[in-house]
Amino acid sequence: MTQNIVKFIESVNNLDTKSYSRLKEAIEKRDSVKFVSYMLNNDETEVGRSCPHCKSKSLHKWGIRNDLQRYKCKDCSKTFNVLTGTPLAHLRKKGRWLAYAKCLIDGLSIRKAAAECGVHRNTSFRWRHRFLQNANQIKPEKLSGIVETNELIFAWSDKGNKKLRRKPRKRGYKSVKHIPSKSRVFTLFCRDRGKNTFDDIFLKFSADNLKPDLSKLLTKDTLFCSQNKAVYLKYTKENNVRHGVLSIPKRESVKKDVVHIKNVEKYQFDLQVWMERFRGVATKYLHNYLSWYREMDEFDFKISPETVLIRAKRPERYNTNHFR
Ligand SMILES: [Zn+2]
Q1: Alpha-carbon distance values, 237 to 204, 207, 228, 231, 233 (Å)
Q2: What is the CA(99)–ligand 1 centre distance, in A?
Q3: pTM of the predicted model, to two decimals?
Q4: From ligand 1's centre to the CA of 71, what distance in Å?
Q5: What's the CA-to-centroid distance between 79 and ligand 1, angstroms?
Q6: Ligand 1 being an ion, which residues bring their Cβ within 5 A of it?
Q7: From the CA of 186, how far away is ligand 1's center (Å)?
Q8: How far, in Å, are 24, 131, 313 from residue 89 at the CA level?
Q9: Which residues of the chain have pLDDT under 70?
Q10: pLDDT, tens digit, 9 for 90 and up, residues 236-283
Q11: How many A from CA of 47 to the centre of ligand 1?
Q12: CA 20 to 30 Å from 243, out of 154, 165, 235, 258?
């Protein structure tokens, strides 16, 4: 073996340029598979790891397959690897995952990301939504201090769906006012001054529908700031919430210095500018895009590909209910 490797290394010197770059590429590919696998295998401590089938913590190590550590559960005898039960389970070509995470951070389209990572566009599509699946569940559970709230209306989109519920439209709506009420999708944004942001999607924007989210997020000490829209007025009145109200008719933007919603408005504006590159997103994936933007904002747009991947791997923590 040792002699073979010495001979092999010597022969590398004799390779022509084309063969040498092929060899280099193969080594880089192997290294990135090893690196990603190492990262995934070592993400959780042995103490924290549990069986995805029965949650038992008593496990045997059960060999390594496809560079991933396998385990056997002492209680239910089932085997699993570090990705079983996570959104990354059964995805292939691990060596390109970090490059793909980088494409997500850079906001590349499905096609551009596919070209960049040398995968098919269907793979690119599948990876995008699997990588973002967990981001949906990583939202603040509480907000503090001044909570700026505002909503944004999107038009229902069946993009990518071959069976349309309506006649095809040539262009989007001129403005929000032109979106028929039946086709409206509402997104709620709550942002506190510590830059923690919560968002959710609603087909009907009513005080009752907002209640489950807001009652969880707001505490006795928070000051809820919004425009004086009926939905917010009704919610704050019914639930006894401290409310900093901004009146719309007077175009009031700041009241008593602290009561304003400029931060959440900026967040919404930047989000919309960022979303333009995707040229409309299907409503069924809207929560993925909102979460993706929220995740990058949480890291001040300096999130690393490694963090994207580790967050994508962690099993579901909370259940969120979309489209109330
Ligand atoms: Zn088990």
Answers
A1: 19, 10, 12, 10, 6
A2: 33
A3: 0.80
A4: 10
A5: 8
A6: 51, 53-54, 56, 73, 75-76
A7: 41
A8: 29, 11, 8
A9: 1, 45-47, 160-172, 249-256, 315-324
A10: 999 999 999 987 766 666 666 788 999 999 999 999 999 988 878 889
A11: 15
A12: 154
